[in-house]
Design goal:
127 residues; 19% strand; alpha/beta
Length: 127
Amino acid sequence: MFKKILIAEDTRSTNDGLVQSLSPIISNIETAQYCDEALLKIKKALHNKDSFELLITDLSFDNSHRARTLTSGETLILAVKKIQPDIKIMVFSMEYRVAKIKQLLEDFHLNSFIHKSRDDIKEIKKG
């Protein structure tokens, strides 16, 4: 199991739910509500030689008042893979189109895709 993960999700309640559900099995969990913030945390962890092992990210991030460079989970994944190619990536999204999910898995070399649903926490714990 992973020791250090980062959750990139713009919805606070989803972040909190994931942290609460995963904290019994993962010792170090951080969250970010913006893709730019997530990338900065990954850079800082790499700099400190304490890198994240897993990134769990949504695909869509709502617009906000905050200026952003990275505006989607897809742009975040691309940026993260450039600086930490060995990080495991799990997408946690409402996306349901099979062709889109297949394309994401292939193009981004994802480790897993979890659809947000009634039993999503069980699926995330399975990895």
